[in-house]
Design goal:
About 25% of the residues lie in helices and about 35% in strands. The protein is an alpha+beta fold. An eight-stranded mixed β-sheet has the order 5-4-8-2-1-15-19-17. Bound molecules: zinc ion (ZN).
């Protein structure tokens, strides 16, 4: 069995070596005729073969819109399941009517079995509880019972990792449909599917990835049957659901869809409060602490209730089942869904156990989030409710489902963090739940967009706060500076280091949406962004649809942007190389050190206090240049120049973006980058009324070492200490301690620009500790200054 592989690899090596030697021969033979560029230059984006085929067949277009022959599969699920709350077992039957809208005859069907992630014999990149996965007692297709196949030929079924492969009795013809029937059961993991479902404290269950669900067969990939490995998330088609959950009385069930038999499961007083909440702009407590004492469901003869839900146009269905949670509900304005000039409303809800105090505000947060996202995306929230569910013990952060999200207790966090996670998880209702991207391969299309949306929601809820850009940039540039980043277009489960998923899925693609907005301007950006989201609502966009839509909408060829930021790991690092005054004026030379080309926006401060804005267009860098000159005419004295003063782009090295004539007055033994940076940073402190005090501090420290300085402080005086390290250093912390070495103030953020502000409690000697991390040289230089406020 190994020999064919060996001979294959020899063949591949031979093929690979031939063109390389041919190239070398040519280069030698025609020396001097090959022009070596100073830098890599972005080329047109190369479409995947599947995407090219889709354009040829008319299912996609080069404009980033679906083609005239676009199709997608759909299904109708009828699911009935019984929960054993003591044994933590779920037993169910699933009937799937699967409609084949594709032009292909399907000889195989793929059903996702995410619970098999908990079998002991499947591959994983995150750890998992072993609960055994699915047991099937009946599998049928087209009314024919199927047997498990040892060799997957002929009608029958086989399990493969987290997939169930079904060979139907006859192929499913284009335009035809087939009914699958599956009877199944499994042990529910406590922390399931990587903390995305499970149970907690014998009073709470969250059912997600809980039923056999069709994998996606699409026009670009065909069957997308990549297994669930615990990290990259999900991809599913839109479907209708008819779900009946059989649970003991006294447990509240809420989930995706509409509850059809409210009168059979909820007492009148709870239903009345729901009706009241549906027209209320202030939160109504639908299930209260008193209800938890007296009961909040109806009773039944057999002690069990069957909760019946239906849902349309959702890509999944998830349910919370709790006997100990409060239920807060308020209406939220989702904008004008029908185009009749009237606003529509949905219910924003929070379901939480009373010990989690921070959750008492969550319904309000959900109300704001849903209204904001409806406006910001230009897609009014289409569903009847959006419910945030407290599921501490299962999850620390949050996880999204259509109309539902499970979030941790946030007991140790801040209100702002609670708002932020609520806005994030509910924003997922748009991507991937409405704009249904393939998260398994392209996590960035989902999480990056959602980070951008929740950041903007946050700034709207807390006026005056950052819109999330700074956090996204810091997260991305922190990894990019180390040089260990993997490209976004890599499949999300196959990164150099699984730990880079946070940058790959979240902060880099999030950063790029802020970057695009700043580069294109808000109007052009939102025309493209909202247009893309609207165009692909209830469809499956691929990366090239996103790229093409933006290029078409803005009328700009943005291939250089997509290739630079999505296919490569090139970084943005623009620097002021020199500023020199001559007879013709002041020449500012900008050097593009990094390989990512971007427009260079210069803010030039003049001696008379005026400022000039100049832009070096990106075409300069795209033509292969590494440097460009901006000339300020003679007679206007330049005292300061900054590239990207607004922080619009994710430059990995800001210390070289700045030049100031004032830096030349600082001691020459400090590297110029430190002098420039001290001048740049101290401006803000001087504006706040601080005055520089004493000599500049400076030193050189090796990695993981501390440089300590002793200073005398006066009781009651407000001080600020600023520290800056050279370009080789990524992270320094700053601390001030009293004589007993107890900390007075510290800045331990993962950055290279710490600043401490504090008031000295007593007069005497104190120690300043500068702690060096991530020094990329044998030692790193730092400089600092102490300020006092009068
Ligand atoms: Zn997310």
């Amino acid at each position: 069995m190994t020999s064919p592989i060996r001979s294959m690899s020899v063949a591949i090596l031979t093929v690979l070596f031939l063109p390389i030697s041919a190239t070398q021969a040519t280069a030698q033979g025609t020396a001097g005729t090959v022009r070596k560029l100073e830098r890599p230059v972005a080329n047109p984006v190369v479409l995947s073969p599947g995407f090219r085929r889709a354009i040829m067949r008319g299912t996609r277009t080069e404009r980033g819109e679906p083609g005239p022959d676009y199709w997608q599969q759909s299904a109708h699920y009828t699911i009935s399941a019984r929960l054993d709350v003591v044994e933590k077992r779920l037993e169910g039957t699933t009937r799937i009517l699967y409609r084949n809208a594709s032009p292909d005859s399907l000889t195989r069907l793929v059903v996702q079995l995410i619970q098999n992630f908990h079998r002991d014999d499947v591959p994983r990149i995150r750890s998992a509880e072993i609960t055994g996965g699915y047991t099937f007692t009946h599998v049928a297709a087209a009314d024919q019972r199927l047997e498990e196949l040892q060799i997957p030929r002929g009608p029958g079924y086989a399990t493969s990792q987290t997939n169930l492969l079904i060979n139907p009795p006859a192929p499913v013809a284009p335009g035809d449909s087939i009914v699958l029937e599956l009877d199944w059961s499994y042990q529910i993991p406590q922390v399931g599917a990587g903390g995305r479902m499970g149970w907690n404290s014998d009073d709470f269950f969250f059912l997600a990835y809980w039923y056999p669900q069709m994998a996606v067969y699409d026009d670009v990939v065909r069957w997308q049957a990549d297994p669930f490995l615990g990290q990259a998330e999900f991809y599913s088609d839109f479907a209708e659901y008819d779900v009946t959950l059989d649970v003991p009385q006294g447990w509240l069930v809420q989930g995706t869809g509409e509850l059809l038999n409210e009168n059979e499961v909820l007492p009148d007083r709870i239903i009345q409060r729901l009706r009241q909440a549906e027209v209320s702009d202030t939160v109504v407590h639908v299930v209260t602490e008193a209800d938890l004492e007296t009961g909040f469901t109806r009773a039944s003869a057999d002690g069990r209730l069957r909760w019946h839900f239906t849902a349309d146009s959702v890509r999944d269905a998830a349910y919370s089942i709790t006997r100990a949670s409060l239920w807060d509900v308020v209406r939220t304005n989702v904008g004008d869904r029908h185009g009749d000039g009237q606003p529509e409303y949905s219910r924003a809800e929070a379901i939480f156990r009373p010990a989690h105090e921070r959750w008492r505000q969550t319904a309000r947060y959900a109300q704001h989030s849903i209204a904001f996202h409806s406006r910001h995306t230009g897609v009014p929230y289409p569903y009847s409710h959006a419910t945030a569910v407290e599921g501490s013990g299962i999850i620390g952060g949050g996880m999204e489902f259509p109309m539902m999200t499970i979030i941790g207790g946030y007991d140790q966090a801040s209100d702002r963090a609670m708002y932020s996670v609520t806005a994030h998880e509910l924003a997922h209702n748009w991507v991937p739940m409405i704009v249904s991207v393939d998260e398994r391969r392209r996590a960035w299309m989902d999480e990056g967009t959602t980070d951008f949306n929740d950041g903007n929601a946050f700034a709207d809820f807390y006026p005056g706060s950052d819109d999330g850009k700074e956090g996204e940039f810091a997260g991305y540039t922190g990894l990019a500076r180390t040089g260990h980043e993997g490209a976004l277009m890599r499949y999300s489960d196959f990164l150099d280091t699984p730990g880079h998923y946070g940058v790959h899925a979240y902060t880099k693609p999030g950063s790029l949406l802020y970057t695009l907005r700043n580069m294109l301007g808000g109007d052009a950006f939102y025309r493209a962004y909202q247009g893309y989201l609207r165009t692909w609502s209830f469809k499956h966009p691929k990366p090239w649809d996103f790229f093409n839509y933006f290029s078409a909408s803005t009328g700009q060829d943005l291939d250089w942007f997509w290739q630079t930021w999505y296919y490569e790991t090139w970084v943005l690092d623009q620097a002021i190389a020199s500023v020199t005054a001559g007879d013709n004026g002041t020449e500012i030379i900008v050097r593009d050190i990094g390989d990512a080309p971007m427009p260079s926006r210069l803010t030039i401060t003049l001696a008379d206090g005026g400022t000039l804005e100049r832009e070096i267009p990106v075409t300069t860098w795209l033509a292969g240049a590494r440097t460009a000159t901006v000339t300020v005419p003679a007679g206007r004295e330049v005292v300061q120049v900054e590239i990207d003063a607004q922080g619009e782009f994710p430059d990995v090295m800001r210390k070289n973006n700045f030049w100031a004539v004032a830096a030349s007055t600082l001691p020459a033994e400090l590297p110029l980058a430190i002098r420039n940076e001290l001048v740049r940073r101290r401006g803000a402190l001087l504006d706040e009324g601080y005055l520089a005090e004493g000599e500049l501090l400076s030193g050189a420290v090796v990695d993981d070492a501390t440089d300590r300085r002793s200073i005398a402080l006066e009781a009651g005086v407000q001080y600020a200490i600023l520290a800056v390290c050279d370009q080789e250093c990524m992270d320094i912390d700053l601390r001030i301690a009293d004589a007993a070495d107890s900390t007075l103030a510290e800045d331990t953020r993962p950055d290279d620009t710490p600043v401490l502000k504090f008031t000295a409690p007593a007069s005497g000697q104190y120690d300043i500790d500068l702690i060096m991390f991530s020094c990329q040289a044998s030692s790193c230089t730092w400089g600092g200054q102490i300020f006092r406020r009068q």
